[in-house]
Amino acid sequence: MDALINNFFTDRNSNAKTQLFFAACFPFFTLFALGIDSIAFKENYFDGRQITNILAILYFSFFFWVSGSYLRRLMFVMVFLSYIGEVIFCTLLGMYHYRTTIIPLYVPFGHAIVYASGYVFAHTQWALKNDNLLRKYFAVGFALLFLAVGIFLKDIFSLIFGVFFFLILKRKKWQNLYYFIALCVIFIELGGTYFQCWKWVPKTFGLIPAANPPMGAVFFYAGGDVLLSKIVDYWKLKTIKSQY
């Protein structure tokens, strides 16, 4: 039993350099793929949505292939979990909307890529070595970010949900994993809204002023990440027990 558990967690670090390569390419791939799905691209050339869909699935597939079994499970579950989240927050609650009425196919795969990139960054030797120092810088940096957008952009959404973000982090013992994922989320949100692939509504629920994009959106990703880890850990234990 102990050997199975040790093998499972050792597998997390397989192909570490290749995983880091895909995580490092995440910003460049994001800008390239979202640029093709942009309104400007459509107006000047053609609707590139299907190309972006294919690119996202291919990138996800290669990233998935080089990852260890634990990260693979996280990515696999994230695709389905994020689609459910899109239906809830986009379709039902109308917190944001895409440039078309249909949720793009690339979005769930994109969420998985975002999560995997943050996960890989958080598990690099540098991040693990500087864990305590990074926690302090991240805490101060995100607090200032939420306050800044709240004061200067009147983004009350980020002030409110920024507090909830920190409450989740406190419950998860301030793991830097959530900060790294949040950084990837902020990057993709800025890129997506810049290219007008999607847009957040000015007032969430018709009441709470929000920027486009609101930095407090990281709370919803963090909440999803907590649920994701619980699902995968349960899956992991079921697998180990079945092999024992």
From TrEMBL:
> Has UniProt tagged this entry with the keyword Transmembrane helix?
yes
Going by the UniProt record, its keywords in alphabetical order are: Membrane, Transmembrane, Transmembrane helix
Q: Coiled-coil ranges per the record?
A: none
Keyword Transmembrane on entry? yes
- Which parts pass through the membrane? 20-39, 51-68, 74-96, 103-122, 142-169, 176-195, 215-235
Instruction: Classify the source by domain of life.
Output: Bacteria
Identify this protein by name.
Answer: Membrane protein DUF2306
Q: Which taxonomic lineage is given here?
A: Bacteria, Pseudomonadati, Bacteroidota, Flavobacteriia, Flavobacteriales
